[in-house]
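For the sake of clarity, the format in which proteins appear in this thesis is described at this point. Each number in the token line that follows is a code from a learned vocabulary of backbone shapes. One such record is shown here in full, so that the layout can be seen directly:
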Amino acid sequence: MARVAKGLRSATARCAVVLALVTLLLGGAVPYVGGTGRLYLAYLVVADRADAAGVTAADQVIRAEQGMVGQEYPQIGVVLAYASAADFGARVRAHPGIVAAGASRTAPVPDPSAGRPYGGAQAQPAAVTSQRSGDLAPGDDVPLAADPQGRTQWNQQMVGESGPPSGQEAGALKNVVVAVLDSGVDDTHPDLRAAVDPTRSASCASGTPDPRMGAWRPDPNLGESGHGTHVSGIIAADRPGTGVVGVAPGARIAAVRLLGEAGQYYGENIVCGFLWAADHGASVINDSYFADPWKYNCPENPDQAAVVAAVGRAVKYAQDKGAVVVASAGNDGQDLAGPRIDDRSPNDRADGVNAPVRHLGAECIRLPGGLPGVVNVSALVADGSLASYSNWGSGQIALAAPGGDPDGGVAQAVVSDWPGDRYAALAGTSMAAATVSGVAAVEAARHPDVRGAALVHLLEQQAVPLGCPARDPGKKDCPGGAYYGYGLADVR
């Protein structure tokens, strides 16, 4: 996630849109029912079998319990369902062949059988516009910046980049696909026109892939709509001689919009995004967000456990197909390996409803950064120290990268592309993760036969240790390891 420079709002603030009050019980979320129509919750149902046969079995259970099938994910044996009964999740979990089932949100949706559900997988495809998103959002309250004019910026210099790649390397980068799962990407920005591959891009903002032309572009009515454009510019912007130059100019961007109309990154959106990216040749998948509505998902909560199981399967599917999954560690300044407090979840609750104060342990994880094999990235400021906002934790961080200082003004933030042919200065672990994704893309171009876990290992080996006595990637718990993991990502 990103933070804007001092004096302006934090880009992590979410504008949650809810339709009715949801009562939260210890055992799970209960949809509100009232008025003239019944409201439903969205559920992720995870079958024992991670294949199409598992989906068939899950479908039968869902219908037997008076639920409605929304979207099937046969690659991993997961189904998105809708139901209005308060005990739907518990009843589904009681069936043999089901390993997890739970609500993916606390904000209800209208009756899916009566029309267009709110942000659900059976919704009509997201609105597609041929206009530049920036033309539709003149009021963006982000710190705009001047065109960098192709200069190598401080964040790139920190990871060892001194200029554009060589001709041979630039050619090889064109064979590397980086999927950006985010708020959407403005491929009309001149720095990104050559980078975004329309044949590999789609919207998953409803949990169902929508590959129509432009569906991946950001929704200017959502507060975070420019975030994915900024992240994409850090990774692979490419307009020789001017604009932003990405860490991996020439790499192909698969733009996958996750941010739904409620301003949320729900579990079904994330599952859809990973499957799309994996099935469309992504070598690297960048994830500069966390799964809504819970900042941390805990195994003892059946709803959160189902989201972890479903997203976990989608991530593993992508990893098994050779993708390196990179994620931002988060901007809460918390120790991910220790006890911590979450007083902001669920973030899709109704206006005026206070969030419960949750006292959590290390078993409660951010998604997708807390999943096995994910390259979880902490953020550094310009002097190489851990940013005060960055999460950290022994055994929780894989690599560190420049994220910038939100209190240092434009000069100490990360400047990248913004919708409407503009540039913005942001700071956060989002920017750090994008930098690592760019480094991973460069290494994928240099070593085309090295993929997946082997490429992650290469990144770890090449990292510059910070606070460690020797360059030894095997000692993750050396001094500084809790902040920096294996060290600073290095593209040299």
Summary: Residues 3-36, 115-139, 469-479 have pLDDT under 50 and may be disordered. Residues 462 and 490 are 6 Å apart (CA to CA).
